[in-house]
Automatic annotation (TrEMBL):
<dbReference type="GO" id="GO:0003677">
    <property type="term" value="F:DNA binding"/>
</dbReference>
<dbReference type="InterPro" id="IPR011990">
    <property type="entry name" value="TPR-like_helical_dom_sf"/>
</dbReference>
<dbReference type="InterPro" id="IPR010982">
    <property type="entry name" value="Lambda_DNA-bd_dom_sf"/>
</dbReference>
<protein>
    <submittedName>
        <fullName>Transcriptional regulator</fullName>
    </submittedName>
</protein>
Length: 366
């Protein structure tokens, strides 16, 4: 999601267009005078909203949905890269303009498809554009859409469990990062750094991943939410490495951040990861306490969310002989959904939990 560190009339104008509001409607939405909005539209980068209005614009952008964010970023990309001149707009001529509109609309659809783990549909939408154009033939707006498509392709590979290799999350994220570097968009570059840190963790390099997360947790290029997520993932990587006590403290700090930001889904996921850290430390009472919070408050709208929550719950239940059978049933349910939707990384994690549990239960030979 987009974050604006300092608003000018240009960003305010782009937000109005992204929200598809008239001058008067946008003014009412923000609680400012219509002449103020008209001034932003006219003067663009040569005027700046007052400090209190900056905060109002921050809130309006934060509350906007993903489609608005995408349109907002697309409108800004049309102005050209920083330093190219305040009045310059990079636009396509002729039919290419309509192609870009369709491309942007398809990216909205990809985000929805990925949230539902509709991988085949998302792959089809992305590749219809990535195979149609090459980066060298695109202007800045087209290159921005190409970079966003490549980043989303990385998300698709990551969710399918293809972490390393030619057709992998790492390959796509690296390519998208190079394009955003060419476009000079620091926030997008930092987001790709965060995605690459996730790849590092998924590939088993936990200490290195934790170091990357720690640096990104204080990186001003990222939004507060992304920084809080990076802090949470520091704890995740350290917990997997066996440093459960420190990981729990880091996760609690992330939970407080999510509470301050009013991000209920992230708050719930953080409790799920905190429960696993307590399981790793051998405190099953606390582990059950926190996983119950996650189960009561967590969103289960997508198959991925259901699998992750059931995997964590099953792992904790499996740790106690008294609830072992219940844990196996929960893991079986998670494995069935993971296999159905092609989530190979999640399926591998479930099998790993089962194998470890069977090894722990097997009698030792004397």
């Amino acid at each position: 999601m987009a974050t604006v560190h300092h608003w000018t009339g240009l960003e305010a104008h782009a937000l109005r267009l992204a929200l598809r509001m008239s001058v008067r409607a946008f003014a009412e939405h923000l609680g400012v005078a219509a002449r103020t909005v008209a001034k932003w539209d006219k003067l663009l980068t040569t005027t700046e909203p007052r400090p209190d209005t900056q905060a109002i614009l921050d809130t309006a952008l934060a509350r906007a949905d993903a489609a608005v964010h995408l349109r907002f970023e697309t409108h800004l990309s049309e102005t050209g890269r920083p330093g190219q001149g305040a009045g310059r707009r990079v636009t396509a001529s002729g039919s290419r303009t309509w192609e870009y509109e369709s491309w942007a609309d398809d990216l909205d659809r990809v985000v929805v498809a990925l949230s539902r783990q509709s991988f085949a549909f998302a792959d089809n939408l992305l590749n219809r554009w990535l195979e149609r154009f090459g980066p060298a033939e695109l202007d800045d707006k087209g290159l921005y859409l190409f970079a966003r498509s490549t980043a989303l392709l990385g998300d698709l590979h990551r969710d399918q469990g293809a972490v390393l290799g030619t057709l992998s999350a790492q390959h796509s994220y690296t390519g998208a990062r190079a394009l955003f570097t060419q476009l000079d968009i620091p926030r997008r570059i930092a987001q790709l750094d965060l995605s690459l840190a996730v790849v590092t963790e998924m590939s088993g390099r936990l200490v290195l991943a934790a170091r990357h997360y720690e640096s990104l947790a204080v990186d001003d290029r990222l939004s507060r939410r992304d920084r809080a997520r990076a802090r949470l993932w520091v704890g995740t990587a350290l917990s997997k490495e066996g440093n459960h006590d420190y990981a729990s403290r880091v996760m609690m700090a992330a939970i407080r951040d999510f509470e301050d930001l009013a991000e209920p889904d992230d708050w719930s996921v953080a409790h799920q990861k905190l429960a696993l850290a307590h399981r790793g430390a051998g405190d099953l009472t606390q582990a059950l306490h926190f996983i119950d919070i996650a189960r009561r408050t967590g969103s289960t709208d997508s198959p991925m969310q259901r699998v992750r929550l059931d995997t964590a719950h099953g792992h904790i239940l499996l740790s106690d002989p008294a609830t072992r059978n219940d844990g196996l049933q929960v893991l079986d349910r998670a494995a069935k959904v993971a296999a159905q939707y092609g989530m190979s990384h999640q399926l591998g994690s479930i099998e790993g939990i089962r194998t470890t549990s069977e090894g722990a239960d097997r009698p030792r030979r004397r």
